[in-house]
Write a structure and sequence with these properties.
With 527 residues, the protein is an alpha+beta fold. The chain is 17% helix and 33% strand. The chain has three domains: 123 residues, TATA-Binding Protein (2-Layer Sandwich), CATH 3.30.310; 73 residues, no CATH class; 232 residues, Rossmann fold, CATH 3.40.50. It has a 19-stranded mixed beta sheet that branches.
């Protein structure tokens, strides 16, 4: 068991009125870049469509272009097993079984071939920035048991994600995102949201030693910071004419836990993230009626845990739910986000029956590790870590536990696989959506997740995505190529049934609740 991740912030020493910075004694200069172009115009989008032989692509008003084949995108061969038992709210369900032989027959193209095809297609369309470099990885499907034995591993597709640099320094963010995925037949998805830049002078920035001190004040005293310079490319809908250097703050604690990575401004005199308005404190004891109908809940730790974007991100998730007529049962932030809300009452003395397990989908953002997620620096009700051993989800209501945090589903932690660590959490739960790697703090991952999951069809496109696909696509949109998203769930011993292809209620078919039999599936891929 890993020791608790303690995040101790000294915001009072960081945040004052007006522009806020740190000592300016140790400084250097780095380039500032001006934006030359942003996104693709309609002609460029059509060239991209023709280069990859796609039926259609979608282009936003800001020039972001996307495509996902509704039949082949991250396709997993399954068999319809007919009607299942109704869920706890009386909703009809459909049973789905794995087609194991078909899974074993899946053919994917080699990584080097995928990278070559992506390069050729983007160049043919004239939309490959000169500062973009490809990395090809496989999207994988696995079956594993609680004894750590892997029964099956199969590649579903080959994805090519691009990384970017400006003057040798990484360029990251939603506005630096190009990704192409392939199955044996061809392209299954494309994402393209990028700008071009030119040098526009220099700026005085703090050196890395000063950046390390600044990062540590945000991430906590127990974190050994790993700091580097980075340029942050905001989403295309955020109009900007220049970008300045920032610090990328990552790191590890002594026990190997990793905080969610953040960025802080590196320019001398730049304003640092400041706390937002706090929620009124929730009472220690709170009576709550049992939730009825289709509902979601959200929680997250923000500036009190060194995460400046959590409140905004949770807000985008809540807004998407509201705009699609989905009831938000609760939304707790910072000191109001309690570990007990996720902990089983019978086995661990928690209160998840009234909160995280009282809705159909719970969305969480904060720091995490392979053995749980953390409330340190924000609250200790009942304590500061929800350990994997304390999770028993789905015995009340929740179908999809969506954890925007780090490493929850990483391959191995403390000698235990992802299935061994989290298998006992499935007591009717359909899926855990999370990551196998460190994730990067985002201001709109939750909104994108909700959008893809709940969106309304228009003509032949824009259909809602499966829950796991919506999680993957939101992560692809908001995370750099180094981040791997993942979804896991249980498999029955008879018929290899599971919730592989769940949509959210009212958006498509949903499977029934299954009791864990000791075998679990995981799909993971690169952002």
């Amino acid at each position: 068991m890993q020791r608790k991740l303690t995040v101790v912030l000294a915001l009072s020493s960081l945040v004052t009125a007006g522009a806020v910075g740190v000592a300016t004694a140790d400084a250097t200069e780095l380039p500032v870049y001006g934006v030359k172009s942003s996104g693709l115009d309609q002609e460029q989008a059509q060239k991209l469509q023709r280069a990859f032989g796609l039926k259609d692509v979608q282009r936003s008003e800001y020039g972001a272009v996307s495509f996902a084949d509704e039949q082949r995108y991250q396709y997993l061969p399954t068999v319809d097993k007919g009607q299942g038992r109704p869920d706890e709210d009386g909703n009809a369900t459909t049973q789905t079984g794995l087609d194991l032989e078909a899974i074993k027959r899946i053919k994917t193209i080699p990584a080097d071939e995928a990278a070559k095809r992506a390069q050729e297609g983007l160049r043919e369309a004239g939309v490959l920035p000169a500062n973009a470099s490809p990395t090809a990885q496989y999207t994988t499907f696995e079956l594993s048991d609680v004894n750590g034995r892997n029964a099956l591993t199969a590649n579903l597709d080959t994805s090519v994600s691009y990384t970017f640099q400006l003057g040798g320094i990484p360029l990251e963010g939603e506005g630096a995102n190009i990704r192409v995925s392939f199955d044996a037949q061809g392209v299954t998805s494309v994402s393209h949201a990028a700008r071009t830049y030119g040098e526009a002078g220099t700026a005085k920035v703090h050196d890395l030693a000063t950046g390390a001190k600044l990062c540590q004040k945000y991430l906590g005293a127990e974190v050994k910071p790993d700091v580097s310079y980075v340029y942050v490319a905001p989403p295309l809908e955020e109009k900007t004419d220049r970008i300045e250097p920032s610090f990328r703050c990552a790191g590890r604690t002594q026990d190997g836990a990793a905080p969610q990575a953040i960025t802080l401004p590196a320019v001398v005199g730049a304003e640092l993230p400041q706390p937002g308005e706090n929620q009124p404190p929730r009472p220690d004891a709170q009576f709550k009626m049992q939730a009825a109908g289709t509902q979601v809940g959200s929680e997250g730790t923000g500036v009190c845990a060194g995460l400046p974007n959590t409140a905004a991100n949770i807000g985008t998730f809540n807004s998407e739910a509201s705009s699609h007529g989905i009831t938000r049962d609760f939304s707790w932030l910072d000191g109001n986000a309690w570990e007990s809300d996720f902990k089983d009452p019978a086995s661990a003395g928690g209160d998840d029956t009234n909160w995280a397990d009282d809705v159909d989908l719970t969305y969480w953002q904060g720091h995490g590790s392979g053995t749980g997620f953390y409330f340190s620096g924000c609250s200790s009700h009942n304590d500061t870590k929800l350990a994997n051993t304390e999770a028993r989800w789905g015995n009340n209501d929740v179908e999809w536990m969506s954890l925007f945090t780090c490493q929850i589903l990483e391959d191995v932690t403390g000698g235990q696989t992802w299935a061994q660590r989290w298998g006992q959490a499935f007591r009717g739960l359909h899926q855990i959506n999370s990551f196998t790697t460190v994730s990067y703090n985002s201001a709109d991952h939750g909104g994108k997740f909700g959008h893809y999951m709940w969106r309304s069809p228009f003509l032949w496109w824009n259909n809602p995505m499966k829950v796991r696909d919506a999680w993957a696509q939101a992560s692809i949109d908001t995370q750099p190529a180094s981040v791997r998203w993942a979804t896991m769930g249980p498999v029955t011993s008879s018929g290899a049934l599971g919730n592989f292809n769940d949509y959210f209620w009212g958006k498509g078919s949903v499977g029934p609740d299954y009791t864990s039999t000791g075998v679990f599936w995981r799909i993971s891929g690169a952002s």
